[in-house]
Design goal:
Length: 291
Amino acid sequence: MAVIVTHNDMDGFVSKELIKSVIGYQIKEYDVDYSFDHKELLKEEKDNNLYITDFSFKPDAFKQLIEHFQNVIWLDHHQCINDPAYEELNKLEGIRRIGDCGAKLTMEYLYKAIGIDMDCISKYQELVNIVDAYDCWKKDSDLYEYGCLLNTYFYSVENQHLDKLKAEVDSRFQKAKILNEASKVKKAAMCKAKSYEITNTFGLHPDKTKWLVMEGVKGSLNFVAKYNNIKHAGMIAYSYLPKAKLWEVSIYSDNKAIDCSVICKNLGGGGHKGAAGFQATTEKMIQLGIF
């Protein structure tokens, strides 16, 4: 049996589904965020292979997992892979590279390391490219707004399946139509979203203090109309997670002097230079000035 741990977003989902489409035996899935306790995995059988896609654990947790499982394959693109604390872990099987999404790295790994028939997953290449443009915030790519709309669809459908996303790319998401619909989605979201500004340095230069905040909104598309990268250090979005009784917070910035992953790492989360996230209690949200 194989165990797959993946980030619970669109990139993580596609990464996981690509692996599932190739592996021909029983699979145990864990769709997680950074509040997940790795000790849950230590309850699994020791002779399993563990795939970690679009996600990272702290170094000490990684070492326990390596000791427990027969083999650990790590596929990730978050900033922590360049942290000196993870240097020894880069010997693990898999691909770690900043600049390409987890799904893109997973597809590359499956081609090169496993040597599968390319036809098995090549039909998902366009889908992976769209996810990559969205997840890595490649706003200059023609596929970026496709990704924004695809992400909206992803969170709107229960019992999601890889072929459902592919079908959206193949049918409804034709170029002429998707760009028009993406514009409508953006305008609708902006009309509903409540926005305001806060002041917090987050340990940055004192000049970088003003942030645009949007309540109950996820996804970078929603900031396009109101965000001003001269006026604002970055953008913050948050929504409530009832089961966890925590607030999920996303931070975005295209300011070269700001590293969102560092800010979020200091708050118990992580991510990319331009987009990252963390979870917080109501008390912490007040302390940060978001509330």
